[in-house]
Amino acid sequence: MISACIAASAQIADTVTVYRPDSVTVISSTTQQSILISGSEDNKDFSYSSDIQIPEKANMSISSMENRVDFSVSVPFLDKVGKKESEKEQETPRAGSTLGISSTVLVGLLNPINDPAGLDLSPWKNSEVGFPSIVNITFYNAGGGLTFGIHGGYNIRRFKSKSGIRYMGADGDLAIGTIPEGATKTKSMITVGSFTLSPLISVKDRKSGIKITAGPMVNFNRSYNTTTKYHLDGKKYKEHDGRVNVEPVTVDILLALCIEDWPDLYVKFAPKNLLKTESIPGFPSWSVGLCFNLD
Q1: What is the pTM of this model?
Q2: What's the CA gap between 116 and 12, in Å, rounded?
């Protein structure tokens, strides 16, 4: 089969199809292509000729397979326009919503503000690890530049002492004890786990790929047993000393900077006291860290 396609003035002319021609002659110059066809499968006297004007920088190809010859002329300008429109259609999302799950992991350093006397928290050694978007529903506008999402997840925060003091839970209150004399590698921790619900707004610049996300993170808190670890006389010890009461619900403020192909950088501020104790006043905190998308 042979197909001759003629492009002129950005329009496609008629197509001539010949099955099993006896001979095909192609004469080329820098500005013109001539095609001569003799005979066909059902008409040995068939004859066809055509002259094609070739635009500058046009791409021409002639390929042969058995008794079939294909000829085509493509105009770069038309190809470029078609490609841009196609890419634009694919890259521009329509308005809608999605419901899904995510394996995003949040890892950060947790720091108290105005560390209360006697608590002796370690700066830059407190930590948080979480899965902030295990389940999510996202609404986005046409173009995908603005999105609103509701994310459900789980978060664990650990507050650690910086010296040899021992955190102990006493009927829900926080008590300060001591670690045995001579112990090394001492560590005492208050651990709080939280189910989180985060309504977040994101604004993305499509040219640079930079996205800013902000909104509240509502924490539904529960405490774990306080934990103390130390080494003494060549042995390792890990002891639990009861739970500490925490506020059942707290709200943090989250701000994240997202750059394509890089982990997200986030800062979070917790203005409300997390611990609900009588002996030691609570304290606000803030954290900074990275979010890794493992999808």
Answers
A1: 0.64
A2: 80
Domain 93-293, CATH among 3.30.310, 2.40.30, 2.40.160, 2.30.30: 2.40.160
Look at residue 27 and give its three-state secondary structure: strand
10-residue mean pLDDT series, the chain (295 residues): 37 62 78 80 80 64 45 40 45 74 91 76 86 92 84 94 82 85 89 96 89 96 90 92 90 93 93 82 88 81
Give the integer Cα–Cα distance in Å for 172 and 276.
8
How many other C-beta atoms are found inside a 10 Å radius of the C-beta of residue 292?
12
User: CA nearest 275: which of 198, 216, 223?
Assistant: 223
* Cβ count near 277 (within 10 Å): 19
Q: Which helix (H) or strand (E) holds 35?
A: strand 32-38
Can you tell me the distance from the alpha carbon of 270 to that of 155, in angstroms, rounded to the nearest whole number?
A: 13
Q: Choose among 247, 239, 250, 154: nearest CA to 193.
A: 154
At residue 224's C-alpha, the angle toward residues 185 and 221, to 5°, is 130
Q: Under DSSP, is residue 144 helix (H, G, I), strand (E, B) or coil?
A: coil
User: What CA–CA distance (Å, rounded) separates 74 from 211?
Assistant: 40
